[in-house]
Write a structure and sequence with these properties.
Strand content: under 5%
Distance between the termini: 19 Å
Largest sheet: none
Order of helices and strands: HHHHHHHHHHHHH
Helix content: 55-70%
Shape: globular
Structural class: mainly alpha
Number of strands: 0
Length: 328
């Protein structure tokens, strides 16, 4: 029988925080991206491994993940693409390929696949592919030696696939990196006491995180951009996610914890529709003659857009859960 997972409030809070950073990164003029953008996608894969069980059979697990990830991918893709004003064959090919573009982002000319506010949807197929590989490994790893060998082989795969001239469909080329994140999350869950470390340990994590971000530069995992060094991308991903979990665990019981925790139960829908809502918000502001390029006004507008994205996404998620409870 498939296992039922007990939700952890601080994990749901962490998902909300990560998603806030994702949404903010998509708002024009977003600041501090080498730091804020260095771990939020990594965090979702880490948290998937952190909370994932291993009792279900491989077939049960694959069917469940297909239902929870691929059906939403098809539904949201259909809505966002079909409702676009200039639908072409390239858009349908993009849905099948499930990558933002065909070549690395700095290659010109390039072929842009996900053009109609559906660019975040690559994440759903990436999660599905990575989760299947992760679950296959975790069901077979029986020792620390096996885990270490898996980490090494995955890291070598990351380095090898980073040399490919094209981005592979369904994020197959970045899958080893994401599986490393999931395995790291699984291991941390076995030693959950690390989330209750003292101030000195937290300070070390902060120093490692800031140093890795400073040395590595911008990361964009949707386009296989790890920054300057893959190893620093891993360090910033792990330390950033750990710091986020430590803070969220410490804030359990405070007023904001319930709000963030509730929003964390709807992250899939919010993640999927965020670009459409941001697009409407930006167009509305421009129609009103309002701009927010920098400064305090930009911060206020960004916060308002984030609130609107979460409100719309949460409301839609509630409706979808009533209509398709086995999917959402």
């Amino acid at each position: 029988m498939p296992e039922k997972k007990q939700r952890l409030l601080y994990v749901d809070m962490a998902k909300s925080v990560a998603l806030i950073l994702v949404v903010y990164s998509h708002i024009p003029g977003a600041l501090w991206q080498p730091y804020l953008g260095s771990f939020f996608i990594f965090a979702f894969f880490f948290l998937s491994g952190f909370t994932g069980g291993t009792r279900a059979s491989w077939k049960e697990h694959v069917l469940k993940r297909a239902r929870r990830l691929l059906i939403p991918y098809v539904l949201f893709s259909a809505c966002l693409v079909v409702l676009s004003s200039n639908l072409t064959l390239l858009d349908l090919e993009g849905v099948a390929y499930s990558r933002f573009c065909l070549y690395p982002l700095d290659v010109r000319p390039n072929i842009i696949f996900l053009r109609h506010c559906n660019s975040p949807l690559w994440f759903l197929t990436a999660m599905f592919v990575s989760d299947i590989v992760y679950y296959t490994l975790i069901k077979r790893i029986k020792s620390k030696k096996g885990l270490a060998i898996s980490f090494v082989l995955l890291l070598l795969s990351v380095c090898a696939m980073d040399q490919l001239p094209v981005l592979l469909p369904w994020s197959i080329d970045t899958m080893p990196f994401f599986v490393i994140a999931m395995l790291a999350g699984h291991e941390i869950r076995q030693h959950e006491h690390v989330l209750s470390q003292g101030k000195f340990s937290v300070l070390i994590l902060i120093i490692l995180f800031v140093a890795a971000c400073y040395l590595n530069g911008n990361i964009n995992l949707s386009c296989r951009i790890y920054g300057h060094y893959i190893r620093y991308a891993l360090v910033s991903g792990i330390t950033g996610t750990l710091l986020m979990l430590i803070v969220c665990k410490a804030l359990e019981g405070y007023g904001c914890s319930r709000i963030l925790g509730d929003a964390g139960r709807h992250t899939l829908t919010i993640f999927s529709i965020q670009m459409a809502v941001i697009h409407v918000c930006i167009n509305t502001l421009q129609t009103m003659g309002l701009t927010a390029d920098s400064g305090l006004w930009h911060a206020v507008v960004s916060l308002a857009i984030i609130v609107v994205v979460f409100a719309v996404g949460t409301a839609l998620s509630v409706v979808l859960r009533r209509l398709l409870p086995s999917v959402f």
